[in-house]
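User: Structure tokens for this complex, please. No commentary.
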Amino acid sequence: MADNDSHRKLRIHALRYNPAKAGDTPRIQTYELEEAPGMTLFIALSEIREKQDPSLQFDFVCRAGICGSCGMMINGRPGLACRTVTKDLEADISLAPLPVFELIGDLSVNSGKWMRGMSEKLETWVHAQEKAIDLKRIEEPMDPALAEAVYELDRCIECGCCVASCGTARMRQDFVGAVGLNKIARFRLDPRDKRADADFYELVGDDNGVFGCMSLLACHDVCPKNLPLQTQIAFLRRKMVVQGTQG
Amino acid sequence: MKIVYTDVLVIGGGLAGLRLAIGAKRRGHDALILSLVPAKRSHSKAAQGGMQASLGNVIKGQGDTEDVHFEDTVRGSDWGADQEVVRMFVNTAPKAVRELAAWGVPWSRVRKGDRDVIMNGQKVTITERDEAHGLIAQRDFGGTKKWRTCYAADGTGHSMINTVADQAIADSIPVHERKEALALIHDGSRCYGAVVRDLVSGEVSAYVATATAVCTGGAGRIYRNTTNAVICEGIGHALALETGVSALGNMEAVQFHPTGIFPAGILVTEGCRGDGGLLKDVDGHRFMPDYEPEKKELASRDVVSRRMEEHIKKGKGHKSRFGEHIWLDITQLGEKHIHTNLREVWDICHYFLGVDPVKDMIPVRPAQHYTMGGVRTDPSGQSPTLKGLFSAGEAACWDMHGFNRLGGNSVAETVVAGMIVGETVADYCDSLSNTPTVPIGLVREFVEREQAKLEAFTKGGGTEDASAIKGEMQDLMTAKVGIFRTGKDLEEAVDKLQKLLVRSRRIGLRSPQLGANPELVTAYRVQRMLRIALTVAYGAAVRTESRGAHFREDFPRRNDAEWLKRTLATWKGESDTLPTLAYEPLDVARMELPPGWRGYGAKDYIDHPDTPERQKAVEAIRAQHASDRFAMQKALMPYEHLLPEVLRGRNERIDERF
Amino acid sequence: MDSTPNVIAGVGLADRPRKSRWPARMDLAQSLTGLALGLFMWGHMFFVSSILLGKDAMWTITKFFEGYFILGTAYPGIVSVVVATVFALVIVHAFLAMRKFPANYQQYRTFMGHRKLMAHEDTTLWWVQALTGFLLFFLAAVHLYQMMMHPGDIGPYQSGERIWSGGWGPLYIVMLLAVEFHGGIGLYRLAVKWGWFEGKDANASRKRLKTLKWVLTAFFLALGVATFVAYAKIGYQIRDQKGAVYTPSWVVPNPMEKAK
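Assistant:
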């Protein structure tokens, strides 16, 4: 790895606001710290909390880019803070919580609650026909390429970046976002899920679902997992239009 | 005082907790999950490589059975495991994989015909059977005789927890997110639930339940360098320990993973080596065959980690400004393989190191990875000393990993334990006699006690800095209670940790409010973490032998004669600075696989006096039932009675139809 | 969205109210009308710009659309019918597209903040599309109504006069900009929205589509401005001949007229 000897002074401008505190108003607070080699926003924010301001709220869990906890607006765009390396950024870094989601405080938002609601609405689980599975028997075979394709869409980490980047979701609270549409595409592809397009139409066949999407494609451009959201939403739109106009 | 009532209170929303809750719920009991974070963000998600289950679908897994898996696991544990529990586990693992397959996990599947794989640094063509086409595939992992690790590309844990969490949503199981259990409510013999703090509002309330299950995962964060997520602070372990009644088993058994990226400590999967990745030193020399000619890079994790550190000590590590490290070379696997089967690895290297593993080697060094020890339970998952308290997964010590866990056995354990303990918890709740008469006074006492503790931090006028104490503890653990341990280091660590514990009683806060307050969280957790750290360090100091991941330079031999026993630690008094240790012997006379050489690592060990006799008896039984492996197993060590009825029975395979 | 199935007393689950099909129909109709209008505008621009090839070329095309070469006589009424059809498409398209606009000030403010913060090209382009679409509600309506009522007033001289002397110039130039941006962005968005021309690598094809979109916009704007200038020039030249009608150069002038 490249060793970087010049230690810049970073200025992190973080949005501070505690909605639980009476009379608190949103403000920007600036923290200065010395950049270290290989420093990520996870390291920087942890250092700020340890040494400068123990009250600063943010969320990290895996700090390895796989759990989706640390989505925040980094210089105006949603991204995963844990895998944002400071050397890729200017010395002035602005951080804000993801919009759309309920604010817990400072940089921490309740995206988990939103995701659970989305999952309940869209029934994001395999709907199998038979309830009891004989666990002693050899499993049902599945085409290897199909399994890979399902995995490809299953890679979503529900970080909320797509929702925060979505013009539609910003304007309309009930829009299910790319995360929801991708889930439907994933289960539609899964042969173990016995739902038909008519069933999926019931879930996403309206302006809160796939027809609400205006194809701004910010979701596709910011997705930390590079999910093929553009392709999947287009595909789902075609299928749902067929379902809605012919079915 | 706010009280929430439920049948089953599950603390921890990872794979074990979710699966346990689903099991209980499907049996008709209300289950409620408490989780520090949204369930899908639990550390289970980080399991990249896979889940062991002896399906034997791939050609390199042909002939695999529960028996082989059993032996691999027991050898891996360095005979520290409870062999009955291992049997329960290996027989349920295939069922768990198949259940998950039906629930929607996109397991990678076998493709019939020829394919090229890298084995031992060489390209080899293997041919998969037609009848295996489309069945769940297995890959190679450390410490296993057969290819047994089922996987979903390199996001196995991710896909598993997505699927299981979605099933929990389908079953309408509530997950109370951003809630932390502060204490178990108990009267010294039975557990009634937990005192819970809301991390957003700061509100403290009581959750009262018939059965309480601790499924909180590991305690890696007591170390500085760990692959564990930042929430893996051993809080569940501490909950059990602080009852003073329930014990923690084998806490000194701490696994270090060979390939944490250096210096960040983020894990790159064992699948890298399983798929043919090599470990190289400063000269680009592949050194593992020099130490382990048989298993090479694929010896068990404790052995590989030690060999790497040993090699670095010889001056063969690559020196960087952050210290020395070893190289992991996966370039020979090729771009396509890395971009499809090891994509998370590529991501991690790309985003955190700026390295392209298709072209460049990856800097790695062993990092703390897994807590073998945990809340001591019986094979049903219940604490033998505190009725109504259950535990499953990494937080538990029921004890299937002994002193070293095999790669791929942890995610497997989470789901298997969830399935088994979910049933036993449901059985427990079924019985009317187990329904507690709730002593509200006691509940209130516990809530008020925890509230008082919190207020002591905010109003107590203490001056110690919680973050600083935590940092000192982590550095101490990594430096003194790491891969190579000596009596001198361990005693020093115990001494210093005790001092830290005393200091932690005078912690003061810079931002003293009771609501959402990360500093307050650090403050109350650091005391708990110190108790866990002390349990690890003290247990390690007392155990004067080397077993599995616990390696004493001053006692390098495994000593079955004196130490074939499980450490049980309890914390008797609030003001104590050391745990009370007791030992539970493992009965050689009942072992299916008597202690011997693991097949890798040191061949030098001190036998238990009962071993030769048991060995002879085992051989006689094996000879007598040579034609029927099931009858043989039953004669050696019957275990099936310990399994819930729905989980009993043989597992079908391509080569073992019925 | 409500996840609980609606069970009305006496009505079983199988008969529960199904989700309306209208959202699908409307989504498709919005895209189809947009596509038709976008393609029409390309054609329209080519026909109008025939003036750059000369007055005769433009006259010929005009007469072709009036049915002169098939029916032997020019019927400007045919143009009225075409214009009316386009007008209808515009109304339907505007009605459907309006659903996507910010519905109140709160949404407007949120979107504007979002657009500024994100600085994301496709998001900004959508805003340009929405704005130009809004402008076109009025500009297109005026233009189309005029054309529908006076279909005969299309020709090298009449069109030139409208621009130079008739006060339509400013409207046309604003409309040119609005249409080209709106249509170019719209057609690009249609392609990514429905997954057309996606090929194997959606990112690469989107990049190509985006480039193509800009090239086409630039081309049609250049063509439009050149055309506008050409008509304006004609309008200037005939500024004193109110109501002049162009006669193709190959028509032998009436001897009587010459005598005058």
